[in-house]
Every structure is written in C-alpha cells, then in structure tokens.
Design brief:
By secondary structure, the chain is of the alpha/beta class. The protein is 36% helix and 35% strand.
C-alpha cells in the first residue's frame, strides 16, 4: 500500500496511481453562471475589498496575510446555510492501491453540529520561497481525499466537487470528477478555469464561488 502526503504529492506519483485527465473548462457554464447575481450589499463589500487590495503589494505578502485580507473574505461572502468556510481541515482516504492524507488550506462545505460533513470546494494557497511548488498537485491530492470522503457518505460514483488554487490574489478554479473509488486506478478528471485577479475581478470570483455552492448544495438536497 503506497502512502501519499497531500502537501508533497508529485506528478509522477499521481499519474502512476490515478488515471489523470485534464481539459480546458473556460467555456463551461460553471465559470460563468448566468443566473448568479450579487445583491447591493455584496457588491459594496466586493468593491471595498478591491479598493483595499489595490493599495497592497500582495505578491510581497506572506501566505497568512494574503489569506486573511484577500482569500477568506470572499469565501465568507459565498457562504450559504449550512455551507461554511473553514480553514486547516484534515483529510484522509484509503483507495485500493494507495492511501492519502494531509491538511486542506481552506474548504467550503456542509457543516453540521460543528463538523465539516461534505467538502464542496477545496482551496490550496500556493507556498512561497524554498517550499514553492506547483499548487496543482497538492490540490489533486486534496480533491482525491475529499471525494473519497463524500463517496463514503453518499455512495455517488462518479463524484463531483470543485477546487481552486491561489497565488497571491490570483484565483484558478477547477471542476473535478472522481470515478472508480474501488478500482485499482481511480480516474481523476479536471477542468481548469482562466486566472482571475482579485484586485479587479473580485465580483467574478464571488459569482463563481456562489454558483459552485448553489450547484452542489442543491444537488445534495435533491
């Protein structure tokens, strides 16, 4: 049994154990939900956030500062009862040929009685300095672990959830489908959005977040 650590997941490990597929998702409706609009209060909050960020050199800030000033405020605005934004969530899963465990930086998910029940959106904040690596692969690990958790609770195969990685205040979204939870090599399919700069596109980021939350929470209640 191969044991994988989410934060140290390498491309070769991923492709050896998982049927990994990528495609462009920039033309899909999930990155441009036509019927998601911001109300007046949300628009005002977004404009205030953008004004503050435009005065900052976010590429010089450390990860914790960026998280508190840029990432978490938008996640909070996307909340919809019982969907909440949580940080530092432990994830683990055991597939047939490998196990994987680690910490998710941020999660938007269904919370019941003070526990994260169902992760809907996983966010990876890119590391800086000597620890800097491609954030796509830790995100893949977190998606595999979260999808397995949801499958254990709901039994849905294939399972769908979303991810995002942030570099400073730049967001890239991912739509993920995980299939074959009991197979020797499960399948992980990813669709990638374009990059969104929060300083000027915070409203678009929030619309995508709200669309993801609505889509998956409505599916869960169907």
């Amino acid at each position: 049994m191969t044991q994988l650590t989410i934060s140290k997941l390498k491309p070769a490990e991923l492709r050896a154990l998982v049927n990994y597929q990528e495609q462009d998702g920039t033309a899909c409706t999930w990155v441009n939900p036509p019927d998601i609009q911001l109300d007046a209060l949300e628009q005002q909050q977004v404009e205030t956030l953008q004004t503050r960020l435009r005065r900052e050199r976010t590429h010089l800030m450390n990860e914790a500062t960026i998280w508190s000033r840029a990432i978490y405020p938008l996640l909070l605005l996307a909340e919809r009862d019982p969907i909440q934004a949580w940080a530092e969530i432990e994830l683990s899963a055991q597939y047939k040929a490998f196990s994987i465990a680690g910490i998710a930086d941020d999660v938007l998910g269904r919370c019941i009685a003070g526990e994260m029940e169902t992760p809907y959106l996983i966010v990876v904040e890119a590391k800086r300095g000597s620890e800097a690596e491609n954030p796509k692969y830790p995100l893949c690990g977190q998606i595999l672990a979260a999808a397995h958790l949801n499958w254990q609770k709901e039994g849905t195969d294939p399972g769908e959830l979303f991810g995002c990685y942030t570099i400073a205040d730049v967001w890239t979204f991912v739509r993920a489908q995980v299939a074959g939870f009991e197979a020797e090599r499960p399948t992980l399919k990813l669709e990638f959005s374009q990059e969104y700069l929060e300083k000027i596109e915070a409203a678009e980021i929030l619309r995508i977040l709200k669309g993801i939350v609505r889509q998956l929470s409505d599916s869960a209640m169907a």
